[in-house]
Amino acid sequence: MARYLAGRITGLVLILFLVCLFTYLIFFKLSPDPALMICGKTCTPERVTQIRTVLGIDKPFLTQFWDFLSGLFAGRDYGSGTNLVHCPAPCLGYSFQTNQSVWQMVLDRLPVTATLAIGAATLWLLAGITMGLLSAVKEGTWWDRSAMNLALGGASIPNYVLALALQYVLVVKLQILPFPSSVAFTDAPWLWFQSYLMPWIVLATGAACLYARLTRANVIDTLAENFFRTARSKGLAPVLTMRRHALRPALTPIVTIFGMDFAALLGGALITETVFGLNGIGKMAADSIAKNDQPVIMAVTLLAAFFVVVGNVVVDLVYTALDPRVRIR
């Protein structure tokens, strides 16, 4: 187990290093001049040169990349003299358009995105696995056909269409829910729940439908296995048989998808956050793309990659708890 963890952590560090390298290469070498993007259309050559010096992009590429990596652990300075700007560790960059450290911008918006991700993931897991399990047990019945048709329809609805429809019906017409806002749970728990309910539903609908169909297919395959028939022939309680011998092996592919989906969602739900006006990481990325704020865009890209890579490692560890046939050697 220790050797496995050491190997996985070593691989994680190597992958993150390569992600940092290629992301930095794309944003600061293969893209248009960042200094010109920051300066805008009405900009003098002297001003562009000054911005390049402040950003440090007038140095050789390897020196730039080393400054970026060292800034993650020790912080870094931009400019000199009266124009000196200090970016504390972990320094993902500095946005001169907002005059803020990118890491601080991420921290300010991460609670909103984390709230969306955790709430939506809870909904789609409960709804998707329950619907898929019931459909598998009642295979071929009216419930099975209705649930799978509903799942197919739900997975076909784009997020922005569902978001706009829910807002029109629940907020404008029926006035059941308030318009979503970034309310802290400690300030007003009930308003917090009402504000995030629609975004949770929008993010969870498509995933729940996909998980329902996948769970149904996996459980049906498991029910046909010899070990499941043996467990039933021993006289075990039906609920215990389904939980231990049918659902657990069927959840292995679900864990794989869930790890990737949840990790990607932590990187920002761009469409949902933008439609509902929630100031999370996804909306920050959309605003930064519109303003060509490259340090912020690169930071969001690295953050999303970090969550996906770490999610992969966590998924591998969860496998052994779900399926005893999987062994870490």
TrEMBL record:
Its membrane topology? Multi-pass membrane protein
UniProt cross-references to CDD domains, sorted A to Z? TM_PBP2
Q: Which UniProt keywords apply?
A: Cell membrane, Membrane, Transmembrane, Transmembrane helix, Transport
Query: Where do transmembrane segments lie in this chain?
Result: 9-27, 112-137, 149-170, 190-212, 250-276, 296-319
* First-listed, main subcellular location of the protein, grouped into a coarse class: membrane
Q: Which InterPro entries does the UniProt entry name for this protein? A: BPD_transp_1_N, MetI-like, MetI-like_sf
Superkingdom per UniProt: Bacteria
Q: Which Pfam families match?
A: BPD_transp_1, BPD_transp_1_N
List, alphabetically, the GO terms of the cellular component aspect: plasma membrane
Q: Which residues form the ABC transmembrane type-1 domain?
A: 110-319
Location of this chain's protein in the cell: Cell membrane
MF terms per GO, please? dipeptide transmembrane transporter activity
| Family stated for the protein in its record | Belongs to the binding-protein-dependent transport system permease family.
Q: Which PANTHER family match?
A: DIPEPTIDE TRANSPORT SYSTEM PERMEASE PROTEIN DPPB-RELATED
Tell me what this protein is called: ABC transporter permease
Q: Which organism is it from?
A: Streptomyces acidicola
Lineage at the top is: Bacteria, Bacillati, Actinomycetota, Actinomycetes, Kitasatosporales
